[in-house]
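Write out a record, focusing on structure:
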Amino acid sequence: MPALAPRQGVAVTLPGPADFTAWRQAARGLVAADIRPEQAEWVVAGELPGLLAEAPAPPPSGAPFSVPRAFLDQAEIAIRHSDPERFALLYGLLWRLVHGERHLMQAATDPAVIRLGALAKAVRRDAHKMHAFVRFREVQAEDGPRHIAWFEPDHHIEEAEADFFLRRFAALRWSIVTPRRSVSWDGTALQFGPGGRRADVPPDGAPGDRYEPLWRAYYASIFNPARLKPGAMRAEMPRKYWRNLPEAAEIPRLMAEAPRRVAEMMERAAAAPNPRPQLARYLAPGQLSAPPHVVRDMPTPIDPPTDSTLALAALREELLSRPDLPDFAARATQPVFGEGPVGARLMFVGEQPGDEEDIAGRPFVGPAGRLLDRALAQAGVDRREAYLTNAVKHFKYTPTGKRRIHQSPDAGDITYYRPFLAREVAAVAPRLVVSLGASALTALTGKKLPVLKTRGQVVTALGGQPVFATIHPSYLLRLPDQQAQADGFAAFVADLRAASEQA
């Protein structure tokens, strides 16, 4: 098809506001027809008509071309944004990638690349809010109970996130109603329909809402007055969501009581012996808290729990109360549980916490964790959107003077903690589990597989989940020279990128 005259425009009508497949097909046709970005106008069917209607969008033709995977991954998410200029932004970037700027996505200061990243980040954040703040309320229908929820997303995420709720609540019949779209699961198939009104969903405290007291009690139990940050809490949980959250009714009372409860906690701490002797080497006489770097890195429980976070909380309580823990667990400062969002695309499983993790109470904050953070960033994986944990939940070490030397867990240790790990994986329900090192691979699969031969492959966990095998980042710290470490790090980043693409 010949190129259009410079002043002639092309109107492209997409069937839906977030239909990436349709956008991609139309964009290929425009590139093949040599239609520049300023000549194209993008509209969504059913919305206001465009101004350019001289010619329809051409069908795909011509020689095929390819673009970097990083662009496609970002574009598929960014197209769900509500910005009306998103289609034009994507096509402008595509045009530049095809016409000589092959490495455009690596230009971190390019305004269009920055804008694309901002759109994708906003969409991911909106999806996270949907996962955290959807609350189903049970209603009795003629054919039995149904569960209905109201949510107001900022962007067009309903269809993309439906799979998350299908995996979470496959045993229920449910509907999520938003102003633009509704999603329903009848136990057999997902169905999408027009949007609705908040009045279509039962309000808080409606008859038969047996979940409300549970949510309120749970939120009150995890609220930590010593770490109350109202500004941060409102940023993570904007008030527009409060009216949909039964537990939000507890927030004013808990905030009002926080100063008194903190004072009581300080009085008890001053009178009680140090319950964590391993912290003593960090504390000055009379100091009642951990060092600033430890406290600053501890996560704040801001997001209200889903059913899966309730399961994870119960798992923690069970492990804390077990009378038959291995001997080395008694020497550890504390158990170190996993952290991250339930339903994460990627779940990373390491061997066991190290010295710094044992002190901080968080996974992957020591040297290997910092190396993992760097590798994740280069692979395009946001650690905050992944779930990180270890196969063994306590630090096993050999005391040597003032130092605590890491001691690898044996087969018995891995076997003891395996049921906890299996239940943790089931509760998080990631799309892909990434095993970091031999102990994690053994714990997940029940087999002693060679890591270097299995790395890069997907095997099956005992629970049926897909597991992508790779090395533990501590392996890189033990390589003999800088060149070997650089080569090993590049290969590790490639593994993480491959895992992300398969999730």
Q: What stands out?
A: The longest helix spans residues 111-133.
